[in-house]
Amino acid sequence: MSPRSDPPNPLLTPWTGNFELPPLAAIKPDHFRPAFDHALAEHRSEIDAISTNSAAPNFENTIAALEKSGRELERVSSVFFVLAGAHTSDDIEAIERDISPLLARHSNALYLNRALYARIATLYLERATLGLDAEQARVLERYHTRFVRAGAALEKPAQERLAGINERLASLGTQFAQNVLADEKSFVMVLEETDLAGLPDFARAAARAAAEERGHAGKYAITLARSSVESLLQFSSRRDLREKAFQAWIRRGENGGATDNRKLIAEMVMLRAERAKLLGFATFADYRLDDQMAKTPAAARKLLDEVWGRARTKAGVERDALQTMVAEEGGNFALAPHDWRYYTEKLRKAKFDLDEAEIKPYFQLEKMVEAAFETAHRLFGLSFKKVDVPLYHPDARAWEVTDAQGRHVALFIGDYFARSSKHSGAWMTTLRDQAKLSGDVRPIVLNVCNFSKPAQGEPALLSFDDARTLFHEFGHALHGMLSNVTYPLLAGTAVPSDFVELPSQLYEHWLEVPEILREYARHCRTGKPMPKALLDRLLATRTFNQGFATVEYTACALVDLDLHSLPDAAHLDAADFERKDLERIAMPAEIVMRHRLPHFQHLFSGGGYAAGYYSYMWSEVLDADAFAAFEETGNAFDPATAKRLHEYVYGAGNLRDPAEAYKSFRGRLPTVDALLKKRGLADVVAS
Ligand SMILES: [Zn+2]
Question: CB burial class (10 A; 0-12, 13-18, 19+) of residue 323?
């Protein structure tokens, strides 16, 4: 018998299967650490070769060479982080804790490499005489900005301190996310049949499935997944249960013990402030916004302030109506945050004769996926065909995407159901980004959501909000799939975060286009389209409860900006800061921030939105104004407008400065009017 050798590591062997998809079913946690070590070493030697090249720097031997380097690390990382988000385990979490400081150290070594920076700086100075085309000039400019913003031009001691800060921040960010997930996993409210008063069938079915998944077969479970806890808050007539679940939900990351995030926040905010100072900025918010479309915290704040006062007024009117309803029912209590959704649902039913339980059978997951595809077909000529390829979980599904000429565009993966191995929220991510530098590389794009999984044999039903989330994430997915650039640095969603929500939020508008709803909102039992009267009533509720939604969001954006505008954050008490800041902006007592600081993952797990949560509203100014461009033509699918949208937004990655890209699409910069109208705030006086 011949000696058996270890099978090769599937992360390090070429991916030759369909669509060159990584062999997801064959990859085991044990494969990651050796693959990371190998890929990191390879990238290091590529960087060394570029930075120590004895030839004078030119675009090809420096910028293009950087763009071609690190491809293996890119491959290993993208597989790893897809799993760490969507299907994690104790093993994956342990590797993530080990690897995040190593990746931070690696990125430091790249961006603080003085010899490499000297080459980039030389090219940047000479940029006008290098004969570059527009895209090459943009890549060079982006590299220069990135290196400067990372501290490449600083003296050695400052660089060393920065490197230490970055590594520490990476570890803290990983820990933060894992703590939130741990708090979510440890809470489950197991209910008996008799506890379900008020819950409609779909919520009962979801609770039954959740109980089954958590080992309580035959009972009902409420978890802290948004769709689970929100349906309890919306429908349960048991005030005690609503309070219990709501308290657990808003206390994630703030429960004392090993998973408490408050100290982590204090340290992260302090380190970010210190990093900003080292780089010559007064505060982290100044540093962060300098490279965004908004440019300054003052510009972001101006927009938020414009909305905040009006939103408070509208929320006050909404609260009074809910309180009246409590009194009419004979309730002798002041409306509390855990009552808001319940009475809002009742009011909606009373006012519009509309309840979620009546709407939900019309929003089947399968049909909404088709609706998102059909919209992409009408706007951009895309077609979607289901394909059978091995993925990382049986709930994930894949489609091949082709264009009007039948050419391959992308592989799209949808992973829609909540499970305990998945982080909360909804997101788009990629297993491969588009680029044309080394062959025509087409992207593999994922949407990961947390919709309630139905019991066996039942159809998966969405709330209208869930359907909107599906369209939102699919808009991000299109931004990745339609990308048409040469250089990887500029591909798809690699744009400033106050611009990146434009393609996603804009896409939500097409869910509400009557011709899409008429065709795809079909009853799960009868297959009949939603009756026109119901559709009209549904669309009439668009601005209903928008005071609440705007307050819940805008408070988060304001607290985020204030927190990251602290010039010195030593001795920060995160909970105390949050309380005082909410007092300062006169937060209505009946509404809680959409994400409280101890579980505010946008800010603290990775930090992608730190001092950047305003981005959603900034982008909403853009999306409301952009959709108006279609409305002005009288056709929600106007071909000429769609063509410009494809060219300057969805297909353009980071080819242009965002303001310039928007102007190329719209012919002018946006105004805030369409946003105020969309939220029903146009005629509201600020309080
Ligand atoms: Zn988004």
Answer: middle
pLDDT at site 4: 59
Residue 148 to residue 625: CA distance in whole angstroms: 34
CB burial string 604-633: b at 16+ within 10 A, e below: bbbbebbbbbbbbbbbbbbbbbbbbbbeee
Q: Distance between terminal CA atoms of the chain?
A: 83
Of how many residues is the chain composed?
A: 687
For residue 500, report the distance from its CA to the centre of ligand 1, in Å.
7
CA distances to 105, 173, 281, 567, 587 from 164, in Å:
8, 14, 19, 20, 37
CA–CA dist 169, 177 (Å, integer): 12
CA of 504 to the centre of ligand 1 (A): 6
Q: Which of the residues are catalytic?
A: 473
Q: What percent of the chain has pLDDT over 90?
A: 87
Tell me the pLDDT tens digit for each residue of 93-114: 999 999 988 998 999 999 999 9
Which residues are 445's β-sheet partners?
412, 430
Measured CA angle at 470 (ends 342, 678), to 5 deg:
65
Distance 12 CA to ligand 1 centre (A): 32
Distance CA 531, CA 522 (A): 9
502 alpha carbon to ligand 1 midpoint, in Å?
8
- Whether 206 contacts 225, CB under 8 Å: no
DSSP codes, 522-554: B-TTT-PBPPHHHHHHHHHGGGTTHHHHHHHHH
Contacts of 352 (CB under 8 A, 6+ apart): 537, 538, 540, 541, 544
CA of 501 to the centre of ligand 1 (A): 5
The pocket of ion ligand 1, defined by CB under 5 A, consists of 501, 504
| The predicted structure's pLDDT at residue 352 | 87
Amino acid at 664: S
* Residue 579: its H or E element: helix 574-584
CB–CB of 424/226 below 8 Å?
Answer: yes
CA distances from 393 to 94, 136, 205, 654 (A): 20, 40, 22, 32
**Burial class, 569, CB count within 10 angstroms (exposed 0-12 / middle 13-18 / buried 19+):** buried
What the block records as the tokens of 176 is 């933060």
The token pair that represents 184 in the structure block: 């979510």
Q: 497 C-alpha to center of ligand 1: Å? A: 9
Q: 514 C-alpha to center of ligand 1: Å?
A: 23
Stretches in the chain below the pLDDT threshold 70: 1-5
φ, ψ (nearest 5 deg) of residue 304: -60, -40
454, two tokens: 């139905």
* Cα of 615 from ligand 1 centre, angstroms: 10
| Residue 480, number of CB atoms within 10 A of its CB | 27
pLDDT at residue number 5: 63
Residue 240 exposed, middle or buried by CB count within 10 Å (0-12, 13-18, 19+): exposed
How far apart CA 263 and CA 573 sit, in angstroms, is 8
Q: Are strands 408-417 and 397-402 parallel, antiparallel or unpaired?
A: antiparallel
